[in-house]
Amino acid sequence: MSSSLVHRLLQVTCLTIVSLVAGANGSSLNSSLANEIKGAMLASIRTSWEQGTAAGAIIETDNPEYSVFASSPFKSQGFPASPLRLAFSAAVRQTSDGRLSQQINDALDGAALDGASAGSAVLLGTYTDPSRQAFWQQAADAQLNFILNIAPRTSTGAISHRTDSLQYWADGVYMGFPFIAAYGAVTSNQTLLMEAYTQCKLYRNALLQPGPTGPLWAHIAFDNGTFSDPGLWATGNAWAALGMLRVQATLLKSSYAHSFSLEINDLKSWIKEILDGTFAALTSENLVPDYIKGGPTFGDAASSAALASVAYRSAVLDPVVFGANYTNAASKIRAAVTKGVDNLGVISPLVDPLNWSQEGKLSTEGQAFGLMLLAAWDAWMQTQ
Ligand SMILES: *[C@@H]1O[C@H](CO)[C@@H](O)[C@H](O)[C@H]1NC(C)=O
Ligand SMILES: *[C@@H]1O[C@H](CO)[C@@H](O)[C@H](O)[C@H]1NC(C)=O
Ligand SMILES: *[C@@H]1O[C@H](CO)[C@@H](O)[C@H](O)[C@H]1NC(C)=O
Ligand SMILES: *[C@@H]1O[C@H](CO)[C@@H](O)[C@H](O)[C@H]1NC(C)=O
User: Fold this and answer.
1) Where are the alpha helices (DSSP H) in 171-293?
2) Nearest bound ligand to CA 167?
3) pLDDT digit string (tens) for 254-305?
4) Which of 97, 117, 200, 349 has its CA 20 to 30 A from that of 141?
């Protein structure tokens, strides 16, 4: 065994011990494991959806008081510099049509919803940073206007994930709909809160398919009911669950929670459906396969981390529906994800975010999912 391999094994062991100890000692969010995963995420070159997803993970780790899982996320409680740094770049790189994080390469991103993934972080600026209030407000309003009024709609009224054609991507549920809900919560606009729920429902109607372990979401459908990617992609299901969970939590934290009990229950059961189908498909190394059906089946630590975060968060929101079989599965996944973190803080093995049929070396979204997992685990541990 080479000395570098011995060194590497010691490093992995230390990271694992740190992560286990952190759970017993209180917050895992200041652990060296979290810092290394975060370092690799912030060092990554980012496209629009990666910028927004990174901002979402940073809210949960650095300013959890502003995550939709906190008690009063839509009230000012001090200046959240870390997420606002990511939001600031997203707003400075906004295109004139309103899409955030677009001015990169040739600014010809064909996605209609991806830019809105930074929308909640930009919105946070409107009520926490008076020195730039008008700037944040203009950026948030332009992004909202784009998804509500400029992005094309499918025949059911769903906001298309693409600008140039009418398509449903499971990814869009995380990218666009939590921002619509957050805007509704911040401005006490019941219509927008309902719209966020309705969009989740329309996407589920278009994408839900029977699978070997129960119904799950296909990745991409056209408006005419045929599929561009009919496979049950783990990351697509993870995006859908992450997005619906944030919409659910936002409805709960809004001033209209009492009028949305049916919608909150729907979202909860649709999240449960995804956890049931994906957790029943775990590989022997306790990871969700890249595709549950219709694609490669290598274990994917990225979607696994995201889905485990959803299980811990759901167990905090409703410990009766999401009992020990969910948190036990999440803990097995967490151990498997932690084991795969290397000396750069990079999570593996995982899917290439630019080619869903092969393993990748680095995934910004995967790093963000790792942070979401640690934050969710931390929140769940505090209830135990
Ligand atoms: C809610 O938001 C929509 C979309 O921006 C807007 O048209 C409507 O006037 C708002 N309603 C209220 C009550 O503010
Ligand atoms: C459905 O729409 C897609 C994308 O526009 C197109 O390629 C495909 O041929 C259409 N299929 C049918 C059966 O209409
Ligand atoms: C958890 O248990 C419930 C009730 O027995 C079952 O319906 C569900 O499929 C289980 N889910 C997981 C992830 O094991
Ligand atoms: C995506 O990955 C698959 C499997 O490795 C490969 O066959 C295919 O050529 C890749 N596609 C692109 C566009 O790189």
Assistant:
1) 172-175, 177-186, 190-207, 234-253, 261-279
2) 2
3) 999 999 999 999 999 999 999 999 999 999 999 999 999 999 999 999 999 9
4) 200
Non-local CB neighbours of 355 within 8 Å, separated by 6+ positions:
none
Rounded to the nearest whole angstrom, what is the distance from the C-alpha of residue 299 to the centroid of ligand 2? 32
- Closest Cα to atom 14, ligand 2: which residue? 224
CA gap 119, 140 in Å, rounded? 6
The set of protein residues with a Cβ atom below 6 angstroms from ligand 2 is: 165, 222, 224, 226
pLDDT digits (tens, 9 = 90+) for 308-359: 999 999 999 999 999 999 999 999 999 999 999 999 999 999 999 999 999 9
The verdict on pTM exceeding 0.90 is: yes
What the block records as the tokens of 324 is: 């020990």
Q: Which ligand approaches the C-alpha of residue 189 most closely?
A: 1
Q: Are 318 and 383 in contact (CB under 8 A)?
A: no
Q: Give the residues across from 350 on adjacent strands.
A: 360
Residue labelled with tokens 């561009």: 228
Q: 176, 199 in Cβ contact below 8 A? A: yes
Q: Using CA atoms, how far apart are residues 375 and 28, in angstroms rounded to an integer?
A: 7
3-state secondary structure of 109: coil
Question: In angstroms, rounded to a whole number, what is the distance separating the alpha carbons of residues 359 and 343?
Answer: 19
Contact 214, 276 (CB under 8 A): yes
Pocket of ligand 1, beta carbon within 6 A:
148, 189, 191-192
- Written as six digits, the tokens of 179 are 């921002």
How is residue 28 written in tokens? 């895992």
What is the residue with the minimal CA distance to atom 3 of ligand 2?
222
Token pair belonging to 354? 């630019």
- Closest residue by Cα to residue 161 from 104, 105, 209, 228: 228
Buried b (16+ CB within 10 A) or exposed e, 207-232: bbeebeeeebbbbbbbbeeebebbbb
